[in-house]
Amino acid sequence: MKNQSFIGAKQKASLIDLNIPSNFSGKLIVFIHGYMGFKDWGCWYLVEDYFTELGFGFCKYNVSHNGCSTEDSLNFVDLEAFAENNYTKECEDFQAVLSFIGEQNKPFPEIYVIGHSRGGGIALLQSKDEIIKKVATWATISDIGSRFPNGEALTEWKEKGYYSRLNGRTNQKMRHNYSQYIDFLVNRNNLDIRQAATENTKPLLLIHGDADTSVDIREGKELAEWSGKELHIIEGAAHTFGSSHPWGKEALPDELRLVCQLTAKFFLERN
To answer: Domain for residue 199, yes or no?
Structure first.
């Protein structure tokens, strides 16, 4: 099941893939992409193949306001939606995905979550849901508030109503409306990753590369400290563990394969 439509935050349609292999073990992984990402970025499809070959079901989806559309899941063609995206909407998207999964005519006794970067933050914030049995975070953020402009830049953002950030891959100016910050201020108690990590009672795997320049390894160490879990450090790995977009090779990069191996072992453990 690929490129099916589901209704996400603010009733906005987005696309979802649900791959159930013939050797399905009953364990379903939900994968959450990160900032300026999408479900078909780079070699996420090879990550999907890795886990389905082991008998895991695999679900990946586009957050509803990531800038892609139901007609084009590979490009940022809806920059208005991107400008209005926020963390609350991404939490709502995740709940919509769980509802989509529940509507399928198939039991999923164990649901696990992998979140990359910003997606890992969403995974932690949503980990209290009783349907989630285990969580794995890859190169994950530890805080939301620090990702917004501050000082004079924050004042300018408020006065202008938006700021733009250049997407280095597509060369697009990606607008961020000030409404994103208002949503954070209104919902900050529900968007506290530190609290989510501290109060987490689910089995949790933390993985970070020590050469990550997008999300510093300090944030991974903070999550480890707050959760009381070990941080698995991938030496020499950057933010996407050796992968890039587009990905023209048939195999996973070595760093990402190691990340998948660690994650599969964690998901297969009985705890």
So the answer is: yes
Task: For residue 106, tell me if it sits in a domain.
Answer: yes
The pTM of the full predicted model, rounded to 2 decimals, is 0.97
| CATH number of the domain to which 243 belongs | 3.40.50.1820
Q: Is the dihedral of CA 83, 5, 39, 265 positive or negative?
A: positive
CA 17 to chain centroid: 15
What pLDDT is stored for residue 271 in this prediction? Answer: 72
The encoded tokens of residue 238 equal: 């950057």
* Alpha-carbon gap, residue 177 to 7, rounded angstroms: 22
Number of helical (H) and strand (E) elements in the chain, helices listed first: 9, 10
pLDDT score recorded for residue 105: 86
Helix (H) or strand (E) holding 111: strand 110-116
Domain enclosing residue 57, as ranges: 4-145+191-268
Q: Is residue 212 part of a domain?
A: yes
Note whether residue 211 is domain-resident: yes
> How many structural domains compose the chain?
1
List the one residue out of 39, 1, 38, 41 whose CA is nearest residue 18. Answer: 1
Q: How far apart are CA 41 and CA 46, in angstroms?
A: 10
What pLDDT was estimated at residue 144?
98
CA distance 269 to 271: 6
Backbone angles phi, psi at 201, to 5 degrees: -115, 0
Give 10-residue mean pLDDT values along the chain (271 residues): 97 98 96 98 98 98 98 97 98 98 93 98 96 97 97 98 96 98 98 98 98 98 98 98 96 98 96 72
